[in-house]
Amino acid sequence: MSSPWIQALRSVALNVPDLARAEAFYTTTWRLQVVARSDDALYLRGSGADHHLLSLHAADGVSIRHVSLRARSAEALVAIAQATEAAGGRVLHAPRGSKDPAGGLALRIADPHGRVFHIVHGDALYDDTPELPDTPIRLAHAVLNSHAVADTQAFMERALGFTLSDRTRIMAFMNCDRDHHTIALGDTDNDALNHIAFLMPAIDDVMRGGGRMRDAGFPIAWGPGRHGPGDNVFNYFIGPFGEVIEYTTEVEQIDDSYRAGGPGDWTWPPGRVDQWGIAPPVAELKAAQRSVFFAPV
User: Would you say the pTM of this structure is higher than 0.70?
Assistant: First the structure.
């Protein structure tokens, strides 16, 4: 089911109103490490090979700057640029040297509803990738809301080569490689950020992360639980600026033999919203999942 052009989700870039507060939270509590900085930006890595998983940029408010994807080749960047325009999107800049500290070549595009994707090839990777307890390894997925899921899904398929791995009543899960989903589309009335998921080494790390977040004044907003599509374990939180972030693990790995399910394949008994049925999401989570939008381009 893999995309011919996109290999993985690399990172997410957020605008934040207080860079010092953001650094304190995402290093001390969320357990990322600053690997580069400028006067108005921070770049943070996990324990995996990616140069950074999250970049934080000083701004007046909170918003998404872009979602960064890794291309399979330099030629894929050219193909994506051509496919983007044919799919009704915009090429914000053609492939060129990336201005972020990971380097490599970068293409930037926007879909018809203003979601910005920064697509890189040849960016820096780390050799030192020890599996550290309680520390995110990489990004597992990003979920983006859509007021027109069918249109957004079609763009992801035509411009980026993603395929549908499952469709529930409220979500379209999009696959580009072995992970069940790398991008998912929330079926709702807005185009906000739904959440960013960080992959942890094991269930114990997800659970200890929940305790650490609670101790720091960030209670679990949903979890612990195990999703249906993707089969991953989760704890959700609302970050310091209203952004929804997730610790997850055990993401299902799929191949071409996987068959996408529909809403009728993913139903729960009354009162349940995941496999375990331990904790329903709190009302504040739903509001937060409608509050952070892409910055205008």
Answer: yes
